């Protein structure tokens, strides 16, 4: 359903060979313009045993804390890489240590990208009276187990998705529409859309998911009602 993820991480064995102005530890954010909309990325760099280590996030896909396999700073050039997925980055750190201009590469090709220092902005939805479908739902597709969290808020229904096998946790649907027993959910970051019908007993939702021109039946069951 959501397995065609465009993760981003890079080869970055980083040894601080430059002056303090070239310090790269901290949090870095970038935005990629993708066919399905902007995709926000985050790189978190810390020191470790005289070198560097890092984790990588694909924010809009709910991907958190992917381990960066290697990270390195040589002169003013930062490189980092991930093994799964296979992605690499190479860029130049500016003299003030506030921006890194480079290229991120993966199986789908190479894209120019700029990382800037910053923190991920979080959006909080004010809770509202729980709906009749609030709670946790689970479903399996192509051998992978998905967990969905449905919550009614003052902004309407919010649905987030977890997929442990791909480090996805809390990937929020970009759109949720419900009319009576019909419900539609869309994740633009994955190019995926689900349309289904809620059972009368509110214990299951049966429908179809579309992605990349494919249409597959997909159902999920209620495992935990709202508390």
Word description of this protein:
- The chain is an all-beta fold.
- It is 0% helix and 62% strand.
- The chain folds into two domains: 107 residues, Beta Barrel (Lipocalin), CATH 2.40.128.120; 91 residues, Beta Barrel (Lipocalin).
- The strands form two sheets. Strands 1-6-7-8-9-10-2-3-4-5 form a ten-stranded mixed sheet, with no helix packed on it.
- The chain is elongated, with a radius of gyration of 20 Å.
- The protein starts with 10 loop residues before the first strand and ends with a strand.
Query: Can you tell me the CATH architecture of the largest domain?
Result: Beta Barrel
Broad structural category = mainly beta
Mean pLDDT: 87
Sequence stretches where pLDDT stays below 50 over 5 or more residues: 3-21
Rounded to an integer in angstroms, the radius of gyration calculated over CA atoms is 20 Å
> Tally the helices: what do you get?
0
Tell me the total number of β-strands: 19
Q: Per CATH, what is the topology of the largest domain?
A: Lipocalin
Give me the side-by-side strand order of the main sheet: 1-6-7-8-9-10-2-3-4-5
Global outline: elongated
Helix % is under 10%
Just give the CATH class of the largest domain.
Answer: Mainly Beta
Largest sheet composition = 10 strands, mixed
What's the CATH superfamily of the largest domain, by name?
Quinohemoprotein amine dehydrogenase alpha subunit, domain 2
């Amino acid at each position: 359903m959501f397995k065609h993820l465009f993760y981003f991480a890079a080869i970055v064995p980083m040894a601080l060979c430059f002056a303090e102005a070239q310090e790269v530890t901290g949090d870095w954010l970038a935005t990629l313009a993708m066919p399905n909309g902007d995709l926000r990325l985050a790189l978190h760099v810390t020191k470790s045993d005289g070198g560097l280590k890092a984790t990588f996030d694909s924010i809009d896909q709910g991907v958190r804390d992917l381990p960066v396999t290697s990270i390195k700073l040589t002169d003013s050039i930062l490189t980092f890489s991930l093994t799964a997925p296979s992605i690499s980055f190479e860029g130049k750190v500016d003299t003030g240590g506030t921006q890194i201009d480079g290229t991120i590469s993966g199986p789908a090709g190479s894209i120019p990208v700029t990382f800037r220092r910053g923190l991920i902005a979080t959006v909080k939805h004010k809770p509202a009276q729980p709906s009749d479908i609030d709670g946790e739902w689970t479903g399996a597709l192509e051998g992978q187990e998905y967990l969905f969290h449905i919550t009614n808020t003052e902004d309407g229904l919010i649905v987030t998705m977890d997929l442990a096998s791909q480090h996805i946790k809390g990937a929020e649907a970009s759109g949720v529409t419900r009319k009576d027993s019909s419900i539609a959910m869309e994740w633009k970051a994955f190019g995926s859309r689900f349309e289904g019908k809620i059972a009368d007993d509110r214990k299951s939702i049966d429908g179809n998911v579309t992605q990349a021109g494919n249409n597959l039946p997909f159902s999920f069951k209620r495992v935990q009602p709202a508390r």
